[in-house]
Amino acid sequence: MTAPLVTDVRITAALRQDQDRGLLAYVSCTVAGVLRIDGLTVRRTRSGDTRLSFPARRDRRGLEHPYYEPLDVATERALEEAVLAALLGAGEGENS
User: Given this model, what pLDDT does residue 5 score?
Assistant: First the structure.
């Protein structure tokens, strides 16, 4: 499967105290020109990597249920690359 085109990436910086704990920014974007997704976050892992995180709810048993998620690695990478490029272009944290 070909990865979808990711456009109109919007970055909103997290608060400084959240950034100190690894939450760098909130993200919304358009996928394939037909779907707007919001609530993504950019986080720094304990190992120092920067990763895209997808929103989810937890049920009573503590299991996570994503609201939406990439169905394959190519799509996940396309989303992550577009968001990280926008983040770098925005100076890692300013609105874009």
Answer: 86
Q: Where are the beta strands (DSSP E) in 1-96?
A: 6-13, 23-31, 35-44, 50-53, 56-58, 64-66
pLDDT score at 91 = 60
**Which amino acid makes up residue 4?**
P
At 55 the pLDDT is: 93
Q: Which domains does the chain have, with CATH numbers?
A: 6-89 (3.30.1120.40)
In angstroms, the CA 44 to CA 46 distance is 7
Supply the DSSP symbol for 4.
P
Which is nearest to 25 in space by CA: 92, 96, 89?
92
Q: What is the pLDDT of residue 86?
A: 87
